Amino acid sequence: MTALVTGATSGIGQAVALKLAQLGAEVIVHGRDAGRGAATVQQIQEAGGAARFIGATLTDPDEVRRLAAEAGAVDILINNAGIYKFGLSADVDDAFFDDHFNVNVRAPHILVQQLAPGMAERGRGSIVNLSSVVATTPARAGGIYGASKAAVELLTRVWADEFGRAGVRVNAVQAGPTETPGTDALPGLAEALGNLTTLGRPASVTEIANAIVFLASSDASYINGAVLQATGGQAAIAA
Questions:
Q1: In a 3-state reduction of DSSP, which class is residue 27?
Q2: Mean pLDDT throughout 28-51?
Q3: Residues 238, 182: contact at Cβ < 8 Å?
Q4: Is there a domain that residue 94 lies in?
Q5: Could you give the 3-state DSSP secondary structure of residue 210?
Q6: Are strands 26-31 and 2-5 parallel, antiparallel or unpaired?
Q7: Global pTM?
Q8: In which family does this protein belong, per the annotation (predicted)?
Q9: What count of other Cβ atoms lies within 10 Å of the Cβ of residue 31?
């Protein structure tokens, strides 16, 4: 069993890579930083797992195709890598828009386009896309990011239909506020958003990774086209 995890050198992606390796998958660790990639591979190998690193810049479609080609035949694809920036609609420029849709939408689309047909030929495969609660809940200054994740959720359902009868499942995890290296760069953000959930706290990367790995595994063999909410729950509106 071979798994490709994008954005696997830190945060949620790294936690997913470690868990899949523990379950016996040979993990292809993707990232932009070769040093962090090597460290993640080493961590997996020291725990008795198998892994290799492929570097690629997801803003470049040719790089994404190269990533798919170098990965080869995979059984599991985790489209985890993404970017999130904040800006009001009147203030953002074309590059802001392009960065989000190139990484968050086009890159997963190319990887599915390149890798899912091979899964279908072999009669098995699992794809999990990482979404966000802002795909369905408006976030101030988060319109472009939210729109890119809404697109991912729609594509998840489309791909589930396109490849499901060939034995390939495609699902998504809608993550709520999560403490990651990215949110750590914005002090207090994850904690503040976590306080708005029914659980009153942000998620850890392990909690989101658990949901992703579940959908990728045979334990979820009859789940297809689903968007699993790992959001901490939506708090009731006070009367």
A1: strand
A2: 97
A3: no
A4: yes
A5: helix
A6: parallel
A7: 0.96
A8: Belongs to the short-chain dehydrogenases/reductases (SDR) family.
A9: 25
